[in-house]
Amino acid sequence: MSDKDSKVEKKQISILGCGWLGFPLAQRIQSLHSTWQIKGSTTSVAKINTFVENRIEGYLLPLNPTFDVESAKLHSFFNVDTLIISLPPRLHKHEPRFYVKQIDAVISEIRNSRIRDIIFISSTGIYPELNRIVMEQDVKTPEESASPDMVTAENLLTALRPDRNVTILRLGGLLGYNRIPGKYVQGQKDMATGSIPVNYIHRDDAAGMIITILETGIVNETFNIVAPIHTTRREVYETSCAQFGWETPTFADSNIKPDFKVISGAKFDHHYKYDFKFPDPLKFYYSLEDHSA
Questions:
Q1: Residues 32-54: pLDDT tens digits?
Q2: CATH architecture assignment, domain 3-176+201-228+261-281
Q3: I need a surface site. Which of 65, 90, 178, 291 has the fewest CB within 10 A?
Q4: Can you give the residue ranges of every domain in the chain?
């Protein structure tokens, strides 16, 4: 048993959506807290063996938009004290509000379970470009949001309070490892958004901040999760392309400044103590290797 395990109550945690963020999060939890029980869901049969190799109980749980698996398997997955929901919203061309229906299905299972603590991975993409520093209270309703379905999902989950503790984490642009910003813009011409400040978070820090919450205690709050330095897109793209030898994009000269937002992470800093591994997006760690689960 590690020193941390002796100080922190043993937990049983299920990660719904054990993918690009959820899988390394599960690995890191296991390395820090060897006595904690970790379960992870996937929609890929091929990933189950990878989970087992990493001491993660793997569950094949398709959600389209409801669960289509036997009740015993669902009961086992949700039979924990803590649930982390890491389901990126995906548009469904045949079914409007597909993501909201997925979250509704998850909530039905939560209500029938013993889960008491919930972390929901949301996104700073819900904020419109307000041309200023943006705080958590700036968006509370779908009507205020650039992503109304995501806010609807947040509100459905926070309605579980006070019977359950629900923390909402609005993550900035999730980068690191093989998610390299320059890869997506190399060779582009006359980009108009070079002056916009970025709101990024490295995957290692996203996982680290989630673990800090698990260790310290889940609270009924919403937090922005972003690196504290907001350099410009141009600087990020140029640095990234130079690192990997890609053609640097060019940027249009314009007197018209594009709309922007600077996401504040001050609220998280007030509630929790966390030292960023990568506070500066210009110094994020990247690799061309495949780092998916």
A1: 999 999 999 999 999 999 999 99
A2: 3-Layer(aba) Sandwich (3.40)
A3: 90
A4: 3-176+201-228+261-281
